[in-house]
Amino acid sequence: MLDFSKQFAIIDKLKSLTKITKSFGLKKDKNQITEEIAKKIQKNAYENVHALKEERYTPPYKQLAEQLQVKNEQIFKAAVFNLSNIAINRKRYASEIIKEFEKVLEESELTPEQKQYLQSKLEQVRQSR
Description:
The structure is a single chain. The protein has helices spanning about 1-20, 35-50, 55, 60-65, 75-90, 90-105, 110-129. The chain has about 130 residues and is mainly alpha-helical. Helix 6 packs antiparallel against helix 7 (about 110-129). It contains seven helices and no strands. The protein is elongated, with a radius of gyration of 32 Å.
């Protein structure tokens, strides 16, 4: 029984020594940031908060509108379908999407099927307003 207590006493001493020496060679401010980095973070946060809303926010239909220029039939129809659904369900985007549809009808070289599909969806959007 006496042997076990001596062994555990040695283990306890080793544990305490490792606790003391573990942080001996390391700097305590390892996870801290410098003053320069803190100033940069604060400056960026301040600029982001005070940036104009238009610069920070892109409406969801903008990326879909780019797909109207693609020549692939399926991608074009999917973009028209999704944009028309957005315009019908979100009235605040309807006028901008209508303008985008009209612009594509005027400027793009569309097949007759694409023009017909786009015009039918354009009429649906106009009627929903």
